[in-house]
C-alpha cells in the first residue's frame, strides 16, 4: 500500500486528497458546486451535482497513480444536510444544508417547549439541525416529506447510491438532533416530535465501518479499482481534530474557513442547561464537543468589499494594513455576526456591529477589529468549553485563516497559548484517510496519527497584547450579551 484517500464532501466543494501513510499529500483535486438561495433564508444544493463532483474529484486526483496501490477511501462530510429520498435512491428535493434557516420558528418553539431534547441529543435547538427542518416539513405538509421513504444526509445519499448500504456514521447521525448520544441510537421520543419513524432513517455505525463493491458504472466514473474499500468515517468536525492531532484532553482544534469552529474530544458527553455548545458522538467512547461560528473568513471578505472603491483591495493588502495597527485596534470592537450566530448563544437574528468608532480609526483599524472580532467569537465559545471542564493547553489551527501570519498571531495573543500549524490544511481529509487506514488494519490505533502529521511553524503569544485583549474581551462579551434582545427588535423591523 502506497496511498490512502480522504474524500471530503464540504459545503461548497468535494475534495479528494491522496496521502502517503506519513501524512504527506501526494495529489489532490477539488470540484466546486453551487449553493442556491431560491427564497430568503433558504440554502439548498443539488445532491446529484455533489455526487458528480465527488466522483470527478476521485478520478482526477488518482489519474497518475497506480490504482492497485490505493489502500482505500475514508469519507468526511459537512454536518446537518437533509434530503428526502425514495427507496430507489432518487432525491425528492434539494439538499437543505446547515445554513438553511427556514425552520427558525420551529427551532425557537422547540427550544422553549422541549429543552430535554438537547440533553439527550447534544445538538443545539437551532434551524441548522435536520430535526427543526423535519418539523418545518411536517408543519408545512412539504410534498417531498410526505412522499419520502428515507430522510438522509448527503453522505448517506451517496453511499446508498454507490453501495446500496443503509448506514450512517455516529457523528453525522448525532448532528441531526435525532440521535441519543448517550446510547448511540435513534431517539424515538425526538423522532415522534419530528413526525417520522425509525425505519425512515439508516442504521448508525462506528466510523470504521467499511464497504466495497461500488456499482460498476460508478467505479468507472471514480477511476478507482473495483476492489477499493470505502470506510464511512465521520463528519468534518471530529475528523479535523483527528487529522490535526487534537485528540487528548487539553488539545484544542480551531478551524476557520468561511465559517469557524473550536472543538475538543472528550470521554463523555459534555452538556448543561445553558445549551451553549454541541456534543456529538464519534466512536463508542469518544465525543466531540465544541461550537461553530457562522462568521469566519467571510467577515474579512465583507471588509474587503466594504473598503474597495475603484479597485478591489487584495486580502493580503488588507491584512498587511491590519498588521500595522496595534493589538486592540485602538479600542475598536467588532461583533462579527453578519449572518446571525450559532455558538454560544444560537441567535439567527444577531447582527454585526462596530463598537467604539472614532475619527481616528482608519481602514487598518476596521480590518484588524473585524479579524479580532472573529477570534473573540471563537474565544467566547472556548470560555463555554472551559466552563464544562475542557481546558486549552495545546491549540492546533487549520483552515484558510492559518495562511495569515497576522491572524494566527492574534489567535496566540487572545488565548495566550502557543499555536501549532500543520503543513497541510486538509485536516478533515487526513482524519478520514487515517480512519480508513485503522479500519483496514494498516495502523494500530487512531491516536498514532500524531506521528504522521507533518507540522510547520508555531506562534508564541505576546504577553502585553494578551493583557489588552483580556480587557477588550470583557467589553466584547458584555456588549454582545446586552445586544441580543436589540438584535431581535431590529430583525422584526
Please provide a written account of the structure.
With 493 residues, this protein is α+β, with helices and mostly antiparallel strands. It has a domain at 3-238: Nucleotidyltransferase, domain 5 (2-Layer Sandwich), CATH 3.30.420. Helix content is 37%, strand content 21%. It has 16 helices and 23 strands. The chain has helices at residues 47-61, 104-113, 116-121, 130-139, 143-147, 154-163, 170-174, 188-194, 216-222, 236-244, 297-307, 315-323, 363-387, 405-415, 427-439, 463-492, and strands spanning 3-9, 13-19, 25-32, 44-45, 70-77, 83-85, 95-96, 150-152, 167-169, 179-180, 185-186, 203-205, 210-211, 230-235, 251-256, 260-266, 278-281, 287-293, 333-335, 353-355, 394-398, 419-422, 455-459. The strands form seven sheets. A seven-stranded mixed β-sheet has the order 17-18-16-15-21-22-23, sandwiched between helices. Helix 13 crosses helix 14 (405-415). The longest helix has 30 residues, at 463-492. It is globular and about 65 Å long. The N and C termini lie far apart (61 Å). The mean pLDDT is 95.
Amino acid at each position: 500500500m502506497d496511498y490512502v484517500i480522504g474524500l471530503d464532501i464540504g459545503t461548497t466543494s468535494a475534495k479528494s486528497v491522496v496521502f502517503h501513510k506519513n501524512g504527506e499529500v501526494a495529489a489532490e483535486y477539488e470540484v466546486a458546486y453551487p449553493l442556491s438561495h431560491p427564497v430568503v433564508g433558504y440554502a439548498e444544493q443539488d445532491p446529484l451535482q455533489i455526487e458528480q463532483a465527488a466522483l470527478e474529484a476521485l478520478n482526477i486526483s488518482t489519474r497518475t497513480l497506480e490504482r492497485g496501490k490505493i489502500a482505500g477511501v475514508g469519507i468526511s462530510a459537512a454536518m446537518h444536510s437533509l434530503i428526502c429520498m425514495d427507496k430507489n435512491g432518487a432525491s425528492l428535493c434539494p439538499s437543505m444544508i446547515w445554513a438553511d434557516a427556514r425552520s427558525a420558528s420551529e427551532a425557537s418553539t422547540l427550544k422553549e417547549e422541549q429543552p430535554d431534547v438537547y440533553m439527550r441529543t447534544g445538538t443545539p435547538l437551532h434551524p441548522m439541525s435536520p430535526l427543526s427542518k423535519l418539523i418545518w416539513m411536517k408543519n408545512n405538509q412539504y410534498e417531498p416529506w410526505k412522499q419520502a421513504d428515507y430522510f438522509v444526509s448527503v453522505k448517506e445519499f451517496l453511499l446508498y447510491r454507490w453501495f446500496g448500504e443503509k448506514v450512517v456514521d455516529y457523528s453525522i447521525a448525532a448532528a441531526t438532533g435525532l440521535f441519543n448520544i448517550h446510547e448511540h441510537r435513534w431517539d424515538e421520543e425526538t423522532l415522534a416530535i419530528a413526525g417520522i419513524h425509525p425505519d425512515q432513517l439508516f442504521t448508525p455505525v462506528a466510523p470504521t465501518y467499511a464497504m466495497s463493491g461500488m456499482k460498476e458504472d460508478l467505479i468507472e466514473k471514480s477511476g478507482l479499482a473495483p476492489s477499493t474499500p470505502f470506510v464511512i468515517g465521520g463528519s468534518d468536525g471530529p475528523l479535523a481534530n483527528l487529522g490535526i492531532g487534537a485528540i487528548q484532553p487539553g488539545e484544542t482544534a480551531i478551524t476557520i474557513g468561511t465559517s469557524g469552529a473550536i472543538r475538543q474530544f472528550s470521554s463523555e458527553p459534555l452538556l448543561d442547561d445553558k445549551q451553549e455548545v454541541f456534543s456529538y458522538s464519534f466512536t463508542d467512547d469518544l465525543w466531540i464537543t465544541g461550537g461553530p461560528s457562522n462568521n469566519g473568513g467571510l467577515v474579512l471578505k465583507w471588509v474587503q468589499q466594504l473598503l474597495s472603491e475603484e479597485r478591489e483591495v487584495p486580502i493580503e493588502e488588507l491584512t498587511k494594513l491590519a498588521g500595522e495597527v496595534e493589538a486592540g485596534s485602538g479600542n475598536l470592537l467588532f461583533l462579527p455576526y453578519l449572518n446571525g450566530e450559532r455558538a454560544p448563544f444560537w441567535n439567527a437574528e444577531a447582527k454585526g456591529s462596530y463598537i467604539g468608532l472614532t475619527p481616528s480609526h482608519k481602514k487598518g483599524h476596521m480590518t484588524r477589529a473585524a479579524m479580532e472580532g472573529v477570534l473573540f467569537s471563537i474565544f467566547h465559545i472556548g470560555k463555554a468549553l472551559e466552563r464544562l471542564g475542557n481546558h486549552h493547553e495545546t491549540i492546533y489551527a487549520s483552515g484558510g485563516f492559518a495562511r495569515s501570519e497576522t491572524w494566527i498571531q492574534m489567535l496566540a495573543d487572545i488565548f495566550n497559548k502557543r499555536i501549532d500549524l500543520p503543513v497541510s490544511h486538509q485536516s478533515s481529509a487526513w482524519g478520514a484517510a487515517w480512519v480508513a487506514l485503522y479500519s483496514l488494519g494498516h495502523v494500530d490505533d487512531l491516536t498514532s496519527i500524531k506521528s504522521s502529521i507533518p507540522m510547520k511553524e508555531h506562534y508564541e503569544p505576546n504577553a502585553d497584547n494578551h493583557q489588552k485583549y483580556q480587557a477588550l474581551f470583557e467589553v466584547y462579551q458584555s456588549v454582545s450579551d446586552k445586544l441580543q434582545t436589540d438584535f431581535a427588535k431590529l430583525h422584526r423591523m
